[in-house]
Amino acid sequence: MLGLFGIGVPPLASAQPSPDSTDWVQVRLHHGTDVESVRLTPERSPLSVLLPSGDPPILRLNRDEAVTLGRRQGDVFARRGEANLYARSLRLVPSGEGSWTISLPSESTRTYTGRLTLRPADSSTGLQLVNRVPLQDYVASVVAAEYGLDDRAGTRAMAVVARTYALFSTKHFDGDYDHVDGTASQVYRGENVITEAARQAARETRGQILTYDGAPIQAVYFSSSGGHTASNEAVWTDSPSLPYLRGKEDPYDQASPKHRWTTRINRRALLQALSLHHDASVEGFLLGDRTPNGRLATIEVLFSDDTETDMEASTFRSVVNERVDGVTLKSTWFDARRDGSDYVLTGRGHGHGVGLNQWGAHAMAEQGKSYREILSFYYTGVQIQQLDETSPLPAVAQDPPSPSADSTAPRIGW
After folding, report:
1. Which residues have CB under 8 Å from 322's CB, separation 6+?
2. What's the rounded Cα separation, in Å, for the pair 201 and 149?
3. Where are the beta strands (DSSP E) in 290-330?
4. Which helix (H) or strand (E) holds 197?
C-alpha cells in the first residue's frame, strides 16, 4: 500500500554505519522499474558531473539546464544537446543545498536533494540510480509518505522510528546502496512530497534513535493492530524473540478504519493464484494454526491429487495481494467462509502487527500523549538516545535472520 501507509520490510541483515555516515542515506530510486533513461534538471543551483575517480568536474549544468541520462551497453551516458559523455559510472553533485528533478517517460517527475550516482543495473539495458540524500531530508520524506495523519506527537514518533530504521536496518545491497525507495524498504519519494509537519517532526527529533539496552532496535511498524499487537517471533517464525517487540492489548486502535474489515475474493482467481505459487493444481484451503492473539500462523493448502501442505499465513497473504487483481488482504488475522463463487474473509487490523501501530499512535496523540509515551507503549523497554551520545556506535540489537526464499512475510505496512 502506498500513500498514507507505505509498505516496507523489516531488517533482513543489518549494517553498522560508520560515524561519518549518520548524516546521509544511500537510496536506490525507482526500484522495481527497468529504467532505461531519465531526464535530469538542476533546480536551485548548478550541478557538476564527475567521474568515480573524483577528478575535477567534466561537465557542469546550470540551473534549469536539462541532461538526458541513459545506458549504452556496459556504459552509462550523459547527453546534452549534441554532446555525449560515456563512463562506467557518473556522479552528479549539486552546488550547496541544491536540488534536482528526474523524469521518466512513464512516471511523474520527482525532486531530490543530495547527490546522484548513475551505474548500469543488473538488467541488460537498465540504469541504477542511487541518491545519497541528507538524513534529515530522507526522514522527512519517509514520514510524509508513511504517516499521513494530522497530529504532532504521532508524527514525531514516526520520525524517530524512520531515522532508526534508516540507519540501523540497512541491508547495503552488496554495498551499492542502503535502501530502496519503495516496498522493500521505507517509502521515499524525494523532496516535493515533504509536508511542513513532516519537516518539523524531523527537525524536532533530530539525531534521536530508539535503543534497547544501549543498542539500536529493529524499528518495525505497521498500519493498524485490530486491538492487539504481535510479538515478532509469532509473525516471523525464524526470528529470535526480541524483548522490545512484545505483543500486547492495544486499546488505541478502535478509531482505525481498518480495525475490522470484510473482503470478498473470487474463488477461481484465488485458487489460480495459489496454483501458480505452488506450481500444482490447488482445489481449496483450510485455516491452520493461530498465534496466541489470534493471527493465523499457517494455511493448509489442498491439492487436486488429494495431497496437502502448510504454507505460512503471511505468504498466503502476499500471494493474494500480488496475484489476485483488485483484492487486498489486510492482515493474517481473519476468518474465511465460502459464499457461492466467492470466499468471504472477515478480519482485523492492517499489517503484520509488530512494533509501532500508526493508527494507534494517532489515537494516543489525539488523547494528549507525547511521542515518547507513544514509543514506550509500542516498543517495550526502549530508550530514546541521541546519535552523538553513542560513540562508538553500538551494534544493532539481535538481528533477525533472513527469511526463506519462499516467504515475503517481513513487511511493514502490509
Report:
1. none
2. 13
3. 298-303, 308-312
4. helix 196-204
d(CA 239, CA 94): 42
| Distance in angstroms (rounded) separating the CA atoms of residues 332 and 351 | 8
Residues in the chain: 414
Residue 87, H or E segment? strand 83-87
Report the SS3 class of residue 319: helix
- Residue 394 DSSP code: P
What's the pLDDT band for 201 if we cut at 50, 70, 90? very high
Beta bridge partners of 336: 345
| Close Cβ partners of 188 (under 8 Å, ≥ 6 residues apart) | 27, 133, 138, 141, 142, 145, 179, 181, 182
Q: At what angle do helices 135-146 and 152-168 cross, to 10 degrees?
A: 120
Q: Are 106 and 117 in contact (CB under 8 A)?
A: no
pLDDT at residue 59, rounded to an integer:
87
pLDDT digits (tens, 9 = 90+) for 324-377: 999 999 999 999 999 999 999 999 999 999 999 999 999 999 999 999 999 999
Identify the pLDDT of residue 32. 81
> 259: which strand partners?
none
Q: What percent of the chain has pLDDT over 90?
A: 69
- CA–CA separation, 358 and 339 (whole Å): 33
* Cα separation values, 9 from 27, 73, 198, 298, 311, Å: 15, 33, 21, 20, 20
Higher local confidence (pLDDT), 392 or 353: 353
Output the nine-digit C-alpha cell for 172: 547495503
Q: What's the rounded mean pLDDT across residues 174-180?
A: 84
- Residue 170 corresponds to which amino acid? T
Q: Is the pLDDT of residue 70 over 80?
A: yes
**Buried/exposed 305-341: b ≥16 CB within 10 Å, e otherwise:** eeeeeebbbbbbbbbbbebbeebebbbbbbebeeeee
How many other C-beta atoms are found inside a 10 Å radius of the C-beta of residue 234? 20
Which three cell numbers, joined as nine digits, stand for 154?
504521532
Total-model pTM: 0.86
Interatomic CA distance for residues 137 and 147, integer angstroms: 15
d(CA 360, CA 51): 48
Angle between the N-to-C axes of helices 358-366 and 152-168, in degrees from 0 to 180, rounded to the nearest 10? 140
